[in-house]
Specification:
The protein is mainly alpha-helical. The protein is built from five helices and two strands. Strands 1-2 form a two-stranded antiparallel ribbon.
Length: 121
């Protein structure tokens, strides 16, 4: 399957596929008539790449993670540390959003409370 076919069929942005090729993660991919031919293994890797991208990994972080996964046996601890760090960052963002939401709800409560007072008077 060509890069265009893979992009269309699996809804993977062409830029992501081009990065995948630039990172040299296509070792098992065959080049036919000048274009990469993707197989099921590549598509599984690309799904993981898309997941990492969707959860906030930068391209350089995805590259590091994928190289650890594909080229370094026993890299589970390193990859787990990377995921744990991302998780801590996301939890911090969630906490920050929860605080803002709480402040927003408080402001809404005050307006409604004042509206109720006006209606009872």
């Amino acid at each position: 399957m060509t890069i265009d076919e893979a992009s269309r069929r699996y809804n993977i942005p062409l830029e992501m596929l081009r990065e995948y090729e630039r990172w040299g993660l296509c070792k098992a991919v065959k080049k036919v008539m000048g274009s990469w031919q993707y197989d099921d293994t590549d598509l599984e890797r690309l799904r993981l790449i898309m997941t990492l991208h969707d959860i906030g990994f930068a391209s350089s972080e995805i590259e590091t993670y994928m190289k650890l996964l594909l080229e370094k046996e026993g890299s589970e601890d390193q990859r787990l540390r990377i995921l744990d760090q991302k998780r801590r960052i996301l939890l911090g963002e969630i906490h920050s959003c929860e605080k803002r939401l709480s402040h927003l709800d408080y402001l809404r409560y005050n307006i409604r409370k004042n509206q109720d007072k006006k209606q009872t008077v």
